[in-house]
Design goal:
The complex is a heterodimer of chains A (about 140) and B (about 90). Chain A contains four helices and three strands, in the order αααβαββ. With about 140 residues, chain A is of the alpha+beta class. The longest helix of chain A has 27 residues. Chain B has four helices and no strands. The termini of chain B are far apart. In chain B, about 30% of the residues are buried. Classes of the chains: A alpha+beta (about 140), B mainly alpha (about 90).
């Protein structure tokens, strides 16, 4: 199923690039999307991949909201390093989409993925507007 | 409306690029740069989309490429800035 999604995505790119919906061009696009090399490895699970795709799409409007929050905070921001549970590292498309969704939003950037005792997790750098006293005096 | 989006994109460009010249941590500069180069450029492309709607397939492709490429490039830059022990997979 993920193979089909991958082919559809390639076909979408082809039709956008050529802007031509004639049957011949679509046939060339379908041929290319099938013939170009596909990722090898274990089977990609469909449901978590679709959920991650949904989160990536939601991340776009969310990113503009976070950008506005950063802009309106002035220079009152705080940095922190957090950890967040990650998907199975063997599912590369899932990891790619999760990293995309996290890094797209201006508050968070993924720094790495590591395996801990509680399972795989992302190390994330966070920059958030500081909560509380706005009149804080800088040293 | 198109001018408004182009102007807002330009404003985000300047807001995100200015911190590069200031004394800040590398990662906080990267957070702000993502606002300018991904989100600011995205608004500009939307403005162009309203201005020349006949070119929508190429502009949509550019928008998709911009969001994916810029975001992943930001991740690569952030990851490469870390010491080796964080980077093991």
């Amino acid at each position: 199923m993920v193979f089909l999604l991958s082919c559809l995505f390639r076909l979408l790119l082809w039709t956008l690039l050529t802007a031509d919906l004639t049957a011949v061009n679509l046939a060339i696009g379908i041929g290319l999307s099938l013939l170009l090399p596909h990722a090898r490895g274990p089977r990609q699970p469909l449901a978590p991949t679709l959920r991650a795709l949904g989160r990536s799409l939601i991340a776009v409007p969310l990113a503009y909201g976070e950008a506005l929050a950063l802009i309106s905070s002035g220079d009152r921001e705080e940095e922190s390093w957090i950890e967040r549970p990650a998907g199975d590292p063997r599912h590369r498309l899932l990891i790619f989409l999760e990293v995309l969704a996290i890094t797209l939003t201006p508050f968070t950037i993924v720094l790495g993925l590591s395996n801990g005792p509680t399972g795989p997790h992302y190390t994330i750098h966070q920059l958030r507007p500081r909560q509380g006293q706005p009149e804080e005096v800088q040293p | 409306m198109s001018l408004l989006l182009l102007g807002a994109g330009l404003a985000l460009w300047f807001w995100g690029t200015w911190p590069l010249l200031e004394e800040r941590s590398y990662l906080s500069k990267l957070h702000k740069l993502s606002v300018s180069d991904t989100l600011g450029s995205g608004l500009m492309l939307l403005g162009l989309l309203l201005r020349i709607p006949s070119q929508w397939p190429l502009l949509a492709l550019a928008l998709l490429g911009l969001v994916v490429w810029n975001t992943i490039f930001g991740y690569v830059l952030a990851r490469c800035s870390q010491p080796a022990e964080v980077n093991h997979r």
